[in-house]
Amino acid sequence: MTENSSKDEPKVKANAKTRANGKAKAGTNTKAKPATKPVKKAATKTVAKKVAKKPVVKKADKKAAKKTATKEVVKRQNSSDEIARTSIAPVIEYILHGPVDLTFDEVIAEAGLSQEQGLLIWRILGFDDSSADGLMFNQTDVDALKAFKRAVDREMLTLEDMLEMVRAIAQTTSRLADWQATIVGRRLEALGLSNPDKTPTEEELAKVIKSISGLRPILERLLLQIWRRQTVDNVVRSDRASSKPSEASDIGTVAFADMVGFTRLSRELEPHELARLVERFEQIVTLIAAETGAKLMKTIGDEVLIMSAFPQDVAEFALSLQQFTENADEFPELRIGIATGPMINQMGDVFGETVNRASRLTAMAKPSSSYIDTETHEALEVDNRYRFKSTRMRAIQGLSRMTAWELRRAKDK
User: What pLDDT score does 20 carry?
Assistant: First the structure.
């Protein structure tokens, strides 16, 4: 009995090892361990072997698979933003002249741009990266980027110049788009087609598209023609400025006009009343600037910046605007500051010490008055249409001590 037991003992030990480790090797002297831990090791080894035997996927196949997966993820996005975009898809497609069926990556790839170049242009347009998510693009975007690339490749303009041009167009049209949206929104609200409290139905969207369908070609035609007229005006102004015998073309006169007590008004008026006041102010400023030969450069809330190559143009603008607001109950009093000198005129904006001086003069001016600097006074004092009242010399932060004159019409007391 004992003999038989001793003969069978190696077999028992081998079976124990087999159960514990999943595999038994002849001549192994390893002691038996609890079954649970070795089973995990065996399973890990099995998985590792399967992974090792996995067939190699070609690089092109990986790219295709990744692209397909990305598309599927985009299509499955269920964020509220994506739902909002989907609900207004018909309007977006109407504006973009076709279905939005491309992603941002597909657009820049088809246009022949790198990811870095595409993102740079997108950001210069003023859009954040998240606004490029999803199927929000179409062939018109591809064509525009191809035109951009063609202009650079053919050296019509340098890359830096093209990017600067894109930035200028973006900043201008961004405000234009906001303005148009406000105007069209008012019209849609009057027609009962605008309700900010609920998502529009397909039927309501169809009505919106129908109501503005005749507007798009008109607005597009106006945009192109007005741009042409503005370009012609720029050429004429440049030619007029270069004909001045004693002044360089970068010498000009600027003025800031600021509504007095606007902060108080913003608390007293309803938002739509305040917006209407600013809109009306900009309208009057534009008309008077055109009448006097000055040019409206930009508006900053309750303040406007005017410029001309000739001090007389800006002086006439300031006095005419003051006269108008004094006779109009709807407008508060104005402060206006005028300065003449060298400045940098770039991409529709002006800056430099002369512009800073005009801004400081605006802050110094009393309500319903227009203050001018020494350079402007010297240019206007020979013109018998004006008279001047000097103010005490003041120290201006960041500038030298400055004497200002109050500008008035000769016939005024």
Answer: 45
